[in-house]
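Ops channel
N.P.: pipeline sanity check, posting one input/output pair.
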């Protein structure tokens, strides 16, 4: 197998229900890269593979929630396919967005439910959180006082692009 084949396999490999791809460290370890220029080598590999698969409508993306690189369909195509994953329930989207903001703000990636309620300006969002847990976006801790995001949201949403767009909107 050559590097491209190995990389394609690693970036498209689904390890569990909510995790696709591989971390930079895993990729470099599998390819046995140990020199001091390994970061540049990794970036070169990702860039070249990205150019190679672009005509197929594929792109390489990064999930900041679990630090995994993965292959996905072109966002224009996937946006058309999954236009509304919440079945006309904007309250779920709003709750998930607030949860995303709070979890990314906290270093551990865990958010107290009370913080989400404060930002969401709703007294009881537990039903929304349970519905989002059923969809696989988050996990409610057993004590029912905090939640944690699963990597699934990072695969379905380009978080970096979202925050850039929000920053530009705020700037206007």
């Amino acid at each position: 197998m050559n590097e491209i084949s190995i990389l394609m396999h690693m970036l498209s490999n689904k390890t569990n229900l909510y995790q696709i791809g591989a971390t930079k460290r895993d990729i470099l370890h599998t390819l046995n890269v140990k020199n001091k220029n390994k970061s540049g080598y990794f970036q070169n590999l990702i860039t070249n593979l990205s150019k190679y698969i672009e005509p197929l409508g594929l792109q390489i993306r990064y999930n900041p929630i679990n630090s995994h690189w993965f292959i996905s369909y072109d966002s224009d195509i996937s946006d058309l396919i999954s236009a509304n994953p919440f079945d006309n329930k904007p309250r779920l989207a709003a709750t998930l967005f607030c949860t995303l903001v709070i979890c990314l703000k906290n270093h551990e990636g865990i958010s107290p439910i009370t913080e989400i309620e404060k930002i969401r300006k709703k007294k009881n969002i537990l039903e929304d959180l349970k519905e989002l847990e059923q969809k696989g976006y988050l996990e409610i801790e057993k004590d029912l006082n905090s939640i944690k995001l699963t990597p699934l949201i990072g695969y379905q949403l380009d978080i970096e692009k979202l925050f850039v767009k929000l920053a530009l909107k705020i700037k206007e």
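N.P.: looks fine end to end. The chain has two domains: 3-76, 90-156.
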